[in-house]
Amino acid sequence: MTVDPLDRIAAALERMAPAPMPAPDFAAADAFAWHTAPDRLEPVLRVSRVDIGLLVGVNRSRDTLLENTRHFAAGLPANNALLWGARGMGKSSLVKAVHAQVRAEGLALKIVELSREDLPSVQRLLAHLRRSEHRFILFCDDLSFSHDDQHYKSLKAVLDGGIEGRPENVVFYATSNRRHLMPRDMIENETQAAIHSTEAVEEKVSLSDRFGLWLGFHSCTQDEYLAMIDGYCAAHGLSVPAARLRAEAIEWQATRGARSGRVAWQFFCDLAAREGVRI
Fold first, then answer.
1. How is domain 26-217 classified at the architecture level of CATH?
2. Widest CA span in the chain
3. Contact 210/166 with Cβ under 8 angstroms?
4. Triad 274, 275, 279: Cα angle to 5°
């Protein structure tokens, strides 16, 4: 049986350009992950997060972000937020914990995670969110750019919104180890090589200026590190003599060469396993 060439061409075009994504069912969950190829919003039924009360040493950032999120969930003006600084100090954990806390207070709010690699598709995602009656935190974890990375241009659609403006029902929270979202050596290299040095990196460096909130996270002290571990032990019912706990916790962080919330959690997981406690 001979197949019409036009039918073959039509079938090939349909495979190359799949049907538009159907309207998302935002009632399916409180959290979603955005994926492309094809476009879809996948419900996340169980979010990996810690209780906000277990986040130690970030009180000012916690209170600021929580208040901003409450305002947004209540329909009041709110700022986009950049959480930057030391790795392992709870930046992404704070975003997820704040979302859970606001929902626990009775305010309707959903969170959508967007990966940095999918930033070029953000306009399509915003179109779906704009049409919804729900309010959303659009969350991008570990956001940063290299000197030749053009993804930062897509981010402006979220921060500035173009001619339509940022959707009134969307606020953007991002975490990064870098305050200006690009490596310092890249900034310095481009500045030295440019004819007009101040213009060479202005577009990229000024990207972080478009966040209304800058929340800095810094390495914790030993007392804060030990307080984190004490909090985990209390929350999970793990009882260990104080002197032993302190000695083992300090030895653990010494072998890692760093203190942070992540290191504290890793030590606690090891301790719980040795004590036969499930978490």
1. 3-Layer(aba) Sandwich (3.40)
2. 83
3. no
4. 95
Query: How much is the pTM?
Result: 0.83
Cα–Cα nearest to 48, from 141, 161, 168, 147: 141
* Tokens read off for 55: 């986040």
| Per-residue confidence in pLDDT tens, the chain, 279 aa | 566 766 666 565 555 555 566 778 899 999 999 999 888 999 999 999 999 999 988 999 999 999 999 999 999 999 999 999 988 999 999 999 999 999 999 999 999 999 988 888 988 999 999 999 999 999 999 887 765 566 667 777 677 766 677 899 999 999 998 877 766 555 445 544 544 455 555 655 667 778 899 999 998 999 999 999 999 999 999 999 999 999 999 999 999 988 999 999 999 999 999 999 998
- Whose tokens are 């930046």? That residue is 91
Domain boundaries, the chain: 26-217, 222-274
Structure tokens at 213: 């909130």
